[in-house]
Amino acid sequence: MFPFIKSPNTLVNIFIILLAVAPAFALGEGNKNLLLIGAMCFSPYFFIKYPVILPKIDIPLISICLMMIIFTVVFHPETLRWSTLMYSCLFCMFFMSFARVLSFSDYRADDFAKLIKWLLYAYCITLMIQQFCVLTGLPIFNLANYNPREPWKLNSLMAEPSHTARVQTLLMFFYINIQMYITNIKDIKELLSQVNKKVIAAFLYPIFTMGSGTGFLLLFILLLRFIPKKQVISLFIVGLLLTPAIIYVISTNDTAKRTADFVVAIADFDEKQLIKKDLSAAIRIVPTLHGAKKVTIFTKDGLFGKGVDADAGLTPLPSVDCGAGSFSIWYNFGIFSAIIFWSFTLFICFLRNDMVMSCFFWLFLCFFYGGLNVQIIWFTLALFLSYKYVTIKDYARNLG
Predict the structure, then answer these.
(1) Rounded to a whole number, what is the distance in angstroms from the first to the last CA of the chain?
(2) Is residue 127 within 8 Å of 154, Cβ to Cβ?
């Protein structure tokens, strides 16, 4: 099977690419990536091809799958929907397969850096083709979730611009970190002088031109990561002096202004303002606020959940019904399932040498998404696992 794939290293790249993109032709109902789903169905093959037990991967994911099934069958059989449960199990099996392939490979930092570079190029080139199509009136290439009233808000290789912003920022974070590892250069100024400028441009161009407020927010967070501690005070003073100019730039850029207004609304915990300022961003925040109010601990439903998709419609928003946000697993399958999943994803994402940024990405790309059936969650986990594998000695053995 798969005779054209001779190397585990090639398989590692294929796994990551499948998680990194969501081509428009493969998007089904609810933006489900049918190409990825098809690939996930081959997961059992890799269990046979690479027969190894990885307890730190296998035990948490198998436990979650069993809890979701058993708790639903025992406590809320009326909600049982095997298609949804199997979809979650497929994601878990796919990641378990990826971990096995990775552990059998001789994947190296150079391989990882090269893959990230070409993914950033692919995202940038696709966006430029889409923008050319908008400019010339041609049918837009790889189009998904498009609103003609915002013609320049384009999705590139993901289902929507905000997803693209998340993927690109995480890719750039790892590209810089892996270059630091390869070159052993810790000073960010010195590193940037040697890093491929085309890669930086391929990241910045989409962030500034695809019309996603999420992109501006994540860019700001990413820049904070590389500010030397000794220069924090001086940069703070410079920031104060440049405040009028910054305010002017934000006020003249609709995307930047929407992002700034949304951040202010978050600080005020004003749900109505969150929805008014940016509905697409509110969809990610408001359900979590509702979910936090609805979940319980010392009740049957709090411990074992209310069943499959019990949170559907819990947070009605204009044009879309949302669930319990970050607390979706807890609300549907109980606190035990949620704690195991949160602990597992944090374990994969946590970097001892970069605790703040790794925890931020865990919060933003794993915790806040809530459920298991989200491609970006598993993409995030795959990148973190790959990074650890190529930079930490005997990391694969530590999973056993």
Answers:
(1) 27
(2) yes
Strands (E), 39-160: none
Q: State the DSSP H helix or E strand holding residue 314, giving kind and residue range, or none if neither.
A: none
Per-residue model confidence as pLDDT tens digits over 309-340:
888 877 666 555 667 888 999 999 999 999 99
The model's pTM: 0.88
Residue-wise burial string across 248-284, b where 16 or more C-beta atoms lie within 10 A, e elsewhere: eebeeeebbbbbbbbbebbeeeebebbbebbebbbbb
Average pLDDT over residues 227-249: 53
Distance of CA 11 to the CA centre of its chain: 21
Q: For residue 26, give the DSSP letter.
A: G
> Do residues 279 and 45 make contact, with C-beta atoms less than 8 angstroms apart?
no
Length of the chain: 400
**How many CB atoms are closer than 10 A to CB 342?**
16
In terms of DSSP bridges, do strands 320-322 and 315-317 run parallel, antiparallel, or are they unpaired?
antiparallel
pLDDT tens digits, 129-176:
999 999 999 999 999 988 888 899 999 999 999 899 999 999 999 999
Please count the other Cβ atoms lying within 10 Å of the Cβ belonging to residue 232.
11
Question: What tokens were used for 108?
Answer: 């190296």
